[in-house]
Please model this.
Amino acid sequence: MPKILLLLVLLVFTLHSAAAQNPVTDESLASQQFKQQLRGKFLQNDTAQAIITLYSRRQAGGVSWMVAAGLSALRFSLGGGSSTSLNTSPYYQPSSSDNGANVGAAFLVATPIAAYGLGKLLHFSNAHLNEVLTGYAAGRPLPHSLRRKLKPRFFAAPIVKYKEVRIKPVK
Amino acid sequence: MFSMRWAACLLAAFLCSLPLAAQTTAPPPLGAAAADSGAVLVFNNWYLPRYQPGARAGADTTGALLSLFRKRRYAGYLYTIPFIVGVSLALPLSSTDQYGRQHVASEAISPPLGSAVLAAGLVGFIVHANRFNKSHLIALDRAYATGTPIPARYRRLLRDRHFAEAAVLREAIAQQKAREQVGAAR
Model:
């Protein structure tokens, strides 16, 4: 039964991370609206748009690292599944060793992963984004660490991908 | 006998879940009507009709419907949970002991309960997937454009958050269009 439970929990987490790839449903509505306001303020500024894109990608990355930490913690703390042995032979001796469940290992493995994700979330927070863009609007040069991270792919990314429906005349 | 019952069950579920195709006339092909001017396909080719906010326009029902359909569609993955539970109850479980030997349980936990869960989950999934598919959304949007109200069974699922998400999406498309226009003019 613990194996089934483990499977179910894994499934839920996998689904969550699958949904995280979808930019519209995962991010909270308030955060989406905040970024949209900023985008509207700097609508024709490619650099500002790229910075906003960079921040939203890094935020999504931070969330995935946190999910990964949760997953690995679960995997380690629940162990390698149940070891219900049906062995009825007289030579069979129940062993005293556990089945691989190890809370200490879970903590050791998950903490750095979670810390990395949390660091991303804190460093690329919406408040920090607002600060950077306010400084940029005031004419201050972008920090070198941020300039270094602005890659062409962030400039090429559209705000939202869409296709026009082509209209055919009704006969 | 058992498989016949299964097939009948599945067929019934499928028939129950055919929402609009059977009730209204078949929708015109995509891009055939004048209502399509300004309509776009977003994300995984979901149909979003034009909407102009104004005093007389009312709420953005078509946008909210798109948000509702996509959310429900994603949630369909949750039907794997009754599937796993059903399979685990209906079939004997195997486990590996600490020496790496595999043991298969001599009997399943509860085959009747397991197959009932499995069947219910499968039927539920078929109904769900039929209810929230892209062509039904197009049919709803087309009917709505001609003045037919949204059927109550979809309308009562609409919440404020669907309208809020639709507003964000509309604004994002407007921003992207504005950027493209200026980019083309340069």
